[in-house]
Amino acid sequence: MAEKISQKSRRDNAAGWLLNIPYLAYTLVFFLIPLVWAIWLSTMDWNMMSPDKTFVGFKNFTDLLHNSKAIAAFVNGFRYLIPIVILCFIFGLLLALLISALPEKIKGIVAVLFFIPYLTSGVATSVVIRFFFSYNSAFNIFLRNRLHWDIAWFQNPTTAFWIIVGIIVWKMSGYYALFLLAAIEGISPDVSEAAALDGSVGFHRLIHITLPMILPTLTTVIVLAAGLAFGIYTEPYLLTGGGPNNATTTWLLEIYNTSFTSFKSGSGAAMAIINALQIFVIIQLITWLMNKLNKKYGV
Amino acid sequence: MIRKRAEAVLVTGALLVGMLSGCSKPASGSASGSASQKAAGSSVTVKFWSAPQKVQYNFWVSKAKAFNATNPKINGKNVTVKVQEMPESPSSEAGIQNAIVTGTVPAASENISRSFAATLANSNALYNIENDKWYQTAVAEKKAGDTMKEWAIGSKQYVLPEYVNPMTWQWNSKALKALGFSKVPETMDDLKAVLKAFTANKAKMQALGVTHTLYRPALLRSDQWWERWYDFQGIYMALSQKTSWVEKGKLTLDRQGTIDTFQMLGNFGNTIQTNEVTDVWTSKTIPILMSTSLPWDIQTMQAAGKKYGLDGDYIFGPSLVKKAGDTPYNFGDSKGIVLYKNSSISNDQHQGAVAFLQWMYSDKNCDQTDADWLAATTMLPVRGDTLKNSLFAPMMKKYPELKDLAGYSVYSIPCMASEKMTDIQTSLGESGLVPYIQKSTKQEPLHAPDASADVDNAIRAMKSAGSLS
Question: Which of A24, B218, B303, B364 is deepest in the core (most CB within 10 A)?
């Protein structure tokens, strides 16, 4: 009997491994091999075109300590992280609460409408924004003629930074609102009724009932938004080029410039590894904090 | 149960085979990737990459079609030239880099700048063509012997320059005339007189809709390193009388010429338009007095109803020189044709590409090739006889601005032949030009701040970025 069970267990194990082969092969081909290759590349001085490659050890990494653009990309990762996570959370939650209060008939349509910015290409959005803030746009002509404000939007580090944050928050809030909407809709009506009977309504109910009950979804949203903050590329590439004075630069922009315009592929790979490490540490930290919060509220 | 398990195994196997087959090399005879270049049996397929632009692609397709119709043969094998647009994303240079590393590089391509050619040549990815018969015939037919000296990379030739856009100045004719000028400025004194007149007639200019003197949004963007060709090299070449930037690992930039260049821009003061303005030259009212020239836009200008000439809407002027009599050198926005060296390119394919270029630029076809190029693109072919050769006359008549541009193209200097050009020009912007312009745009016109310190910073940064002595 025991032998039969053991045989069955082995067969099940083999089938499990077999069924996992596509995923494992995918991971190997598209993740592990490129990762190992990137680590190897990061130790080389090579433009990928020349037959000459020079092993430089950790030089590409230590050079980043003196590279003002790499330092700016590292710092800007945090500068983007804070407003993007907070604003995506606030606007996503507000949208979700508003949509959940709508009549069932139009709820779906309105949710999709707020989702559209997520589907819009970053290139198209950036081009529209560029026109919107150009010197001879209706908006700027209005500001100059009526308010005597002559603002060079993309030449001022503060305005340039906040325009990029604004685009990303506008684009992503509707997407995150869908997650939160699903969680809010999942709260049992019994809980809402019980809360109402106990006098918990409005803001009080939001803080003490709704938010704790959707905390696992909030964790997902916050982690996704944090990851997003380290993956910004299209908007600064098209609008500011990372400037002025590196105020809007990001890791991806610097990796692109280093690898494909300066052809320092080894240095670009080193940047990519540091970027990945930064994201890993931050995401782990946020997940740890959110798990603590989840435990506190027993979810 | 067994059936279920068998089905699962079958589906998994099919998925795995399907996925891994996507990673395999294409079968021989396949038209994709490097396989298309493989010389098979009695035929040779030669891949040629055009610039990622429809007009240039169409030109090369028509030429390849005509060449293929001549039934060319190499070592007894039929040669077929196949034209493809080079990848544009993330950039054409990165597309070529990727093609080299993956062995899918074409036998030849156009759209290569002198600087990128230097990178490719130093990576042993290009053929030295100076002793090739086709190259010597092309240079002789184009009467471009003098120009070729400017294209040398370490005293060798790797590129046949194809077109040149002389980057000089583009003036708003109506504004210039309203300020009382009956000819385009040619010297620094002329420019100062124009700036003085502009400052004294601001209200008059406002009434004409002209709010700024120079339009140059890229002046404050150090990341756009290529813009230093247009807002630094052009001016610098004229003011330094063609002193090169970099030679044999040494920064040879003329310090005084660089200071003069910075201060020339500084003289525009707060009248420079550094914000982006849409349709600046094609809008009903041109809101600026001048900008760096846009030779590639002449068809757009004509389509927008803008007339060329001092009595029209806009006019091209020469580079501004220090004093009358100096040569108005300018930056030549110029790219050319190269032959790639790679283990994936067979000798037959290389010879096929050479045969194609030999046919294109033979004594019989060269003039017509360049005339067709000009008609297709309105970009001047690199030649020494554009103004004299009757084949180009119809286009000069159709676009009178081409005549002026052809005159300026004689003094065009291409970009530097350095692998580190991107880093050098980024440093120039970051450590010198951008900080200087940030200061100078706070001043009134003709009150350029002293640029010595910024130039010295830029020189230090360029030496470090380019590993130059």
Answer: B218
- B415 vs B407: CA distance, rounded Å: 19
DSSP symbol at B220: G
Q: Name the phi and psi angles at B87, rounded to 5.
A: -60, 140
Contact state of B8 with A18 under an 8 Å Cβ cutoff: yes
Put simply, the answer to whether B220 touches A242 (Cβ < 8 Å) is no
pLDDT digits (tens, 9 = 90+) for A152-170: 999 999 999 999 999 999 9
Which of B5, B119, B210, B276 best tests the A interface by mutation, with the highest count of A CBs <10 A?
A: B276
d(CA B332, CA B149): 14
Instruction: Name the residue in chain B with its Cα closest to that of A12.
Output: B5
Which of B181, B423, B102 minimizes the C-alpha distance to A48? B102
User: Which CATH class, in words, describes the domain spanning A58-296?
Assistant: mainly alpha
Nearest-CA distance A154 → chain B (Å):
8
* B283 chain-A contacts, CB cut-off 8 A: 136
Q: In which band, very low, low, confident or very high, does the pLDDT at B26 lie, cut at 50, 70 and 90? A: very low
B25 has a pLDDT exceeding 80: no
Q: What is the amino acid identity at position A86?
A: I
- Residue A106 per-residue DSSP state: H
- At residue B446, φ and ψ (nearest 5 deg) are 70, 15
Residues forming a β-bridge with B163: B335, B381
The pLDDT, as a whole number, for residue A10 is 83
Chain A residues in contact with B16 (beta carbon < 8 A): 21-22, 25
pLDDT at A224 over 70: yes
Q: Which two tokens stand for residue B26?
A: 């294409």
Across the interface, which of A155, A242, A262 has its CB nearest the CB of B423? Answer: A262
- B223, B284, B433, best to mutate vs chain A, most A CBs in 10 Å: B223
- Residues A166, A177: Cα–Cα separation, whole Å: 16
Which of A50, A136, A256 is closest, CB to CB, to B277? A136
Per-residue burial over A288-298, b = 16 or more CB atoms within 10 Å of its CB, e = otherwise: eebeeeeeeee
Is B125 in contact with A154 (Cβ distance < 8 A)? no
Domains and CATH numbers, chain B: 39-158+333-410 (3.40.190.10), 167-329+417-465 (3.40.190.10)
The distance in angstroms from the start CA to the end CA of chain A is: 42
B404: tokens are: 């002026």
| Interacting residues of A71 by C-beta distance below 8 A, sequence separation 6+ | A64, A65
Residue B33's pLDDT is 41
Whether the CB of B1 is below 8 Å from some CB of chain A: the reply is: no
| Interface residue ranges in chain A relative to chain B, Cβ cutoff 8 Å | 15, 18-19, 21-22, 25-26, 29, 47-51, 130-131, 133-137, 152, 154-155, 241-244, 256-257, 259-263
Q: How many CB pairs under 8 A join A and B?
A: 92
Give phi and psi for B257, each to the nearest 5.
Answer: -60, -35
Mean pLDDT throughout B22-35?
40
Residues in chain B: 469
**CB of B79 closer than 8 Å to CB of B72:** yes
**Do A134 and B124 count as a contact with CB atoms less than 8 A apart?**
no
Identify the bridge partners of residue B126 per DSSP, sorted by sequence position.
Answer: B340
Over residues B39-73, the pLDDT tens digits come to 456 899 999 999 999 999 999 999 999 999 999 99
Q: Where are the alpha helices (DSSP H) in B247-365?
A: 255-266, 298-303, 347-360
The verdict on ipTM greater than 0.90 is: no
| pLDDT tens sequence across A37-57 | 999 999 999 998 998 899 999
Domain ranges of chain A: 1-41, 58-296
Q: Do A26 and B91 touch (CB under 8 A)?
A: no
Residue that is written with structure tokens 């494909």 in the block:
A260
B340 forms bridges with which residues in the sheet? B126
CA distance B22 to chain A (A): 11
Average pLDDT estimate for A259-275: 94
